[in-house]
Each structure stands twice: as structure tokens, then as C-alpha cells.
């Protein structure tokens, strides 16, 4: 007899309560269903599917939260565990066993960093050009900043747009002119040209690749001099991300989620040739002939924000932390205009400092006659003007807030568009119910909405009376609004909705060679094998992009970067690879936990393309006994054979009592008695210790031993790598977290490779 239960629970999400149901039968979890939520749909759907699969597979709520949505998923796990326990359900967990730290190695033609729009298009293009492609994404879901936006984009020059608009006079040159005009000529012309020339072919390509069916966008904004904006049927960017990612995998592409890049991988010529990343505590090494950087912006990183963004609500992903500017440290890459942001006037503050966009709904309101007023009750702008006029007018107010006033007829259509673009019905009702709080959403008579919003009623009444008169006459003496948008208010019920400046997009970033989208250093030299796409490389849209243009840049730059990365991979295929030296790296202690093992593993991965490193453990080697030299223990034989076969040796030693550990000294005695495995071998010494002197005495001691008769090794002079205060030098995933330390280790290792020659 089955024992079916449907257990209800709720957890705190980012935007409100999440209600769910856990289906249990005979003490076994069959399903985790979401009943209600107010989260961002494109992200939430991916995250919950992943969380549910993990819970059902492991029959436990003690599983890992999903990166990029850690707080929300952990809240669900904690509350669900409590709910199941209260019902007396006795689960039998099948938790995956905890393994020691491991490294996964991959080799590919192209690796793409970032699973947003630009990264997916770049990966798709490279795939279709016959390349093997791996895409790494730090979050547990795809989409990046794109997932929070609509799917609207320009289709200029595409067959797709030609079928939608016909011959309407649009052209790449016209799109470039509009871009320059609206950005007040702050755009970088060469990048703009790259964008406008590639967006047409890119739209046709990605439409065919992922079976996308673009149509005319509901909103054609005034900034564009001709109708050219298209969108997907759902109007959601999630449709784009979902279909393109599925097509990417169906065509042989590989996606590694929860994989955060921490450092660039370099080859023997010190050129970028892949990435080193972390995945659930393990390390991931991806060697590639070309790298495409599509990691997005840095809007969520308070430390990187400039003056322009202060006091402006942020509505982008909280994971847009500018990681590239950390893992590219040491490449001396050139940047530009890091203080540029795309500031929109259409946003509501859903929590302190955080906003959601209302662009399409706000445009609908003004098309139907809505007006913008300030706290004094006065109109502040021509409501049919470009968005930049709205932005400047709102930011000019002392409180940087405006209010959108509309009648009930208009609200119904505005409401429909708010729900279509990222707002939930329950969320909107909550705004109306929570009077006196932000965001301001109020309904009632003109006097009531003014009182609730804190707007001067007397002045507001005068403003409405004047507007009604102007609308009836079809003229707007003060702001010169187009007569076709001067619609009088109908009825006695009004809606007042706050409008604040908000930003998600950073418009500056890395500088590139506009012929190839190759990153450049501060001397304006191309960085070999390294390309950029999307928000991380700004400039095409200048200091103020038009609506639909960030998607235009993301898709066009991804398309072009995918081509360039593929061609670069072809060129590298024609260059014969040099033989890498083989190195034996001895962990100089038998301790189960040692920072020297962490150092050895890190060196093996960091220098993966510079040498073939075999990490040798000595924990199974017995203490040296001269009576046994004629009957050499198997553990000694194994280490001796590997050292003799190697081109060079590295020894990582701790420091015990001003000397090397007894276990390491014992191994050296085995290797210098009957056999002389280190004779004439070139050796590098490294070491990590808890103290401030970083194994200095142990290394001195080891040099003396290696120089002794019977050992006769050649120790590299100078270049002594001594890691002090080791616990502070490694992160939780056992990677070196200090750039200075890593850089010096790289220098010492490169010196050793030269010493070997």
C-alpha cells in the first residue's frame, strides 16, 4: 500500500515568498513543484529544474544550492527539509560521496567565457564553422544580463527584417547614423561599423541555427529613424537563451555550468591558450586554441562603479561583478570609459537600490496620453521625446523621481505589458497594497493619488486641467508634444506610478582591435588568441545606447568573435607544437594535509601547457634502511623510475625544525644509495609554510643535501619560491588567491624551464 503525500511549503525568494509542493510516496521524493513565485522567470525556471533534479536524484535536501541563486535555492532547501521532517517522512539519502580535490582537463578549439547572449552566439558560430567548442558559465544557469531583458533587437540588413518590414529605407549606414546621433557622437565609429555590418548576417544565422522566429516588435521607439526593431513571439530573452543553448548542445557544443574562471591558462610561449576555473570545489583546466571573453559587465560590483552611477538604482543581475578584471590581471589589458553606464528613465525601485525596468509599459502609457510629473505636481518633459530627454528630466529633479500619471483605460494596457516583461500579478498588487512604501503604485481620485504619493495636489490639479485643455485643442505650448499623443484623460480614476533612473549595463570595458575583436594591451598590441564579445567590450553604442542596441551589439559581436576565434584556431593548427618537457614534482612530506600538496597541484594545473608535470607522493615510501637497498621497496622504485625519466625535478618542501621533513630526507637517501636517480638532474625547489619565513631554512638545508656526493643534482640558483603564511594564500578551492604570489611563481617556473635547456 502506497503512502502518498503532497507536502506544502514556502520559502523566501528574492522578490517575495515562493510556494511549493513536495510529492512523496513511500518515503521517496518524486517531485518538487513550484506553485507560486515572483522571481525572474528566465532564471527561476532553469534554477528550479536543476535544484529539483539534484533533490530527486540524491533523495535529500542536503544538496548544494545553485550558484548565482544561492540564497533563494538554499532557502527552499532549508524550508523543504523542515517541512518533510514535520510530516515524519523518513528519506533514504543517496548523497554523492565527497571526493578529494580533483582536476578535470579539457582540450578544445574554442573556449567561450560566459553563457549570455554574446557568448552563446560566438559559440554557435564557431560550432557551425567546424570547431570544437566549450562554453563555461560561472552561474548554475545561462543567460547573463540578457535574461533580464526583452528579446528586442534590430534586424538591419537581414533577410528576416526584409520579410517583416519590406523595403523601408533602413540600412547599416542609417543605423550607424542613428547610433552616432543618439549617443551624441560618443560612439567608437569602427566598433559601430562592425556592429551595423554584422547584425543582419548574425540575425539570419542565429535564426536558422536555433529555429528562432522573429516578428515586428510591439514597441518601435522614436530614437530609431525607421521601424527596424524585431522580437521573438514571447518578447522574452529567455526564449532566445533557451533555444540557442539547446541548439548549441545539439550541434556538439559543451556547456560547463557552475564553472568560474579564476585565471587565464598560458602556453609555453606565454600566450593565452585557455582557462583555469573552479567547479564545485574542483579545478577545471580547459586548453584552447582561441578564447572568447563574453563575461558581461560589472554593474553589481560597487567597488568598480564610478560617480555617474551613484544614486541610480541597479536592475541587472547581482552576478555581474566584473570577474574578468580579476582573472585577466597580469595581462596588462587596455580599458576605456569604465565610468559609462546605460541609464534608463523607466524603472521602479523594488527594493533599496534595486530596480525593475518598465520601458515598454512606460512607452505605452505615453502613447495613450500619460504624462510625467514631479513631486511638485508639474509636468517635466515632452512625453513623446526620446528616452534621453526623460532620463535627463528625471535626474534633474531634487529627489531624482518622477511619476507617470494615467487613466484607467491606459493602466489596463500598461499592466498587461508589465506582466509580460518580468513583473508578477501578485507583485504588482503588493505594490498597491503597501501604501506609503516604495515603489509608489497608487490608484484613486486625483486627490487620493496625490496624497498617497506625496505629490502637491493643488499644482497637480492645475497641471491636469491644462493638459486636458491642450489635448482637446491638439497643441502643447510648453513641451510641444506631438498632437497624436495628446489624448485626454477619461473618467475620474487615476493611476500614479513612480519612475526612477536605473541601469544594468556598463558601456565601457576592454579595448579591442576593431578588425578582429582581439583584446589589446596598454601598448595597443593584440593579445594573441584572445577575443571579446558583448558588454565586456564597450564602445559601439557610445555613452548612451538606443533601445534594442545592447542586444544588437551582443548578437553581432558574438557572431563576429566566433568567426575570428575559429580562423585563429585554424592558423594555430598549422603551427607545429613543440614538445613539452616532462617534470617530476615531489610533494616533500607524508602528511595527509599539507599546503605543499596544494602548491604542487596548483602548479600542475597552472602550467598545464608549459610542461607535463607528474605529482609524486612519498607517503607510501618506508623510512630508509640500508639493509634493504638490495631489495628496493616498490614505492621507491616507482618514484625513482619517474624521476629518472623526467627532464627535470621540482621538490615542494615544508619546513620542520629548520630542515626538511624526515620523510623527504629518507626518500633522498633511497635515491642516492644504490640508485642515483637525481645525478645530473636539474632541480627546482619550492616550499610553503605557516610562518613568515616561507621555508627559507628548509630550502637551504635541501640545497646542501642535493649537492652532496651520491645525490649530485644541479639545483637552479636563485629564484627561490618560498610561500609564507600559506593559509592566507589559498582560497577554499585550493587555488592561489594572491596575484603577486602567483606572478612570482610563474616567473620562477619560467626561469626553471630556461634552466632546463
TrEMBL record:
<dbReference type="GO" id="GO:0016020">
    <property type="term" value="C:membrane"/>
</dbReference>
<dbReference type="InterPro" id="IPR050315">
    <property type="entry name" value="FAD-oxidoreductase_2"/>
</dbReference>
<protein>
    <recommendedName>
        <fullName>Urocanate reductase</fullName>
        <ecNumber>1.3.99.33</ecNumber>
    </recommendedName>
</protein>
<dbReference type="Pfam" id="PF03358">
    <property type="entry name" value="FMN_red"/>
</dbReference>
<dbReference type="InterPro" id="IPR005025">
    <property type="entry name" value="FMN_Rdtase-like_dom"/>
</dbReference>
<dbReference type="Pfam" id="PF00890">
    <property type="entry name" value="FAD_binding_2"/>
</dbReference>
<keyword id="KW-0274">FAD</keyword>
<dbReference type="GO" id="GO:0008202">
    <property type="term" value="P:steroid metabolic process"/>
</dbReference>
<dbReference type="Pfam" id="PF04205">
    <property type="entry name" value="FMN_bind"/>
</dbReference>
<feature type="domain" description="FMN-binding">
    <location>
        <begin position="13"/>
        <end position="87"/>
    </location>
</feature>
<dbReference type="InterPro" id="IPR027477">
    <property type="entry name" value="Succ_DH/fumarate_Rdtase_cat_sf"/>
</dbReference>
<dbReference type="InterPro" id="IPR003953">
    <property type="entry name" value="FAD-dep_OxRdtase_2_FAD-bd"/>
</dbReference>
<keyword id="KW-0560">Oxidoreductase</keyword>
<dbReference type="GO" id="GO:0010181">
    <property type="term" value="F:FMN binding"/>
</dbReference>
<dbReference type="InterPro" id="IPR007329">
    <property type="entry name" value="FMN-bd"/>
</dbReference>
<keyword id="KW-0285">Flavoprotein</keyword>
<dbReference type="InterPro" id="IPR036188">
    <property type="entry name" value="FAD/NAD-bd_sf"/>
</dbReference>
<dbReference type="GO" id="GO:0033765">
    <property type="term" value="F:steroid dehydrogenase activity, acting on the CH-CH group of donors"/>
</dbReference>
<dbReference type="InterPro" id="IPR029039">
    <property type="entry name" value="Flavoprotein-like_sf"/>
</dbReference>
